[in-house]
Amino acid sequence: MNGIGNEIVVVDLRARGGAIAPEEARAAAAPQGGAPYDQLMALYAPRTPGTDAFIRIYNNDGSEAGACGNGMRCVADLVSKESGKTPLTFETTAGILNCWKGADGMFTVDMGPPRFKWNEIPLAEEFRDTQAIELQIGPIDKPILHSPSVVNMGNPHAIFWVEDVNVYELNKFGPLLENHPIFPDRANITLAAIKSRDHIVIRTWERGAGLTKACGSAACAAAVAAARLKRSNRKVKVTLPGGDLTIDWRERDDHVLMTGPVEFEFAGRFDPALFGKAGAA
């Protein structure tokens, strides 16, 4: 499946269970024998009463993610069509997420409240103000990128404010910034351009996945950071290389709502022999 180009593989383990090892997640993304993806959503039977499933989220390098908004919409669409239910409630390692289908057929995911404290993001050292931290790429007197806003939207995010997101070689800067010592858990790196108070354009180097056509949590992070800086409204359209998302940082409860489309691509089965050991997912 995909959410505005964010390639998602949903592995249904509700009947059989079983953990997915990092090497298995990497093998599942292999061009030969796998299904190349940005995130893999492993769907398990519910652990908590009142939820519809428990989900573990893997990046294509085998690492785990706490949130994937585009992937959650894909799972919601799949489970809703199967069960006829909407709204739906899912549990992830980042907490409980609610999803529902609108009259336009698009799914909304409640991504919960953003976190701004330096030790919640987390950062390796204290910054009292995370609206702009001391971090730059390039010469100290003429940096190429500098002073990102940082926020946790289930994953750590750093947002660099630029005029044009396409003039920077994010494929070169992304890996360096993702693994910068200031981010002990690594970070998603986003370039964001404010086009109007209702419109933001972004490109993202995704932690554990690389350049991606779309990253839902990055869209949320950019929208929240822009509103926090008073550079945008709390409800905005965020344009990513794969398409548009609507992000609404709801004032009454501080929750961030993400709305967008879902596309089904194909279904199949992984052959355990491809993963080097029997019983791999």
Please write out the topology.
Elements (H helix, E strand, L loop, with lengths): L1 E2 L2 E7 L9 H7 L10 E6 L8 E7 L4 E2 L3 H15 L4 E5 L2 E7 L5 E4 L25 E2 L7 E2 L2 E4 L3 E6 L8 H9 L9 E9 L2 E8 L3 E3 L3 H13 L6 E6 L2 E7 L6 E5 L21
Parallel strand pairs: 2-3, 4-6, 12-13, 14-16
Antiparallel strand pairs: 1-2, 3-4, 4-5, 6-7, 7-8, 8-18, 9-10, 11-12, 13-14, 14-15, 16-17, 17-18
What does this structure look like?
The chain is an alpha+beta fold and 281 residues long. It is 16% helix and 33% strand. It has 4 helices and 18 strands. It has helices at 22-28, 69-83, 170-178, 216-228; strands at residues 2-3, 6-12, 39-44, 53-59, 64-65, 88-92, 95-101, 107-110, 136-137, 145-146, 149-152, 156-161, 188-196, 199-206, 210-212, 235-240, 243-249, 256-260. It has a 16-stranded mixed β-sheet that branches. A two-stranded antiparallel sheet has the order 9-10. 43% of the residues are buried. The model is unreliable at 277-281 (pLDDT under 50).
Concise overview:
By secondary structure, the protein is an alpha+beta fold. The chain has helices at 22-28, 69-83, 170-178, 216-228, and strands spanning 2-3, 6-12, 39-44, 53-59, 64-65, 88-92, 95-101, 107-110, 136-137, 145-146, 149-152, 156-161, 188-196, 199-206, 210-212, 235-240, 243-249, 256-260.
Give a short account of the largest sheet: 16 strands, mixed
Shape: globular
Q: Kindly report the average pLDDT value.
A: 93
How large, in whole angstroms, is the Cα Rg?
18 Å
Write the element-wise H/E pattern from the N-terminal end onward: EEHEEEHEEEEEEEHEEEHEEE
Taking the alpha carbons of the first and last residues, their distance comes to 18 Å
Number of helices: 4
| Helical residues, percent | 10-25%
How many E strands?
A: 18
> How much strand content do the residues show?
25-35%
SS content category = alpha+beta
- Contiguous uncertain segments of 5+ residues: 277-281
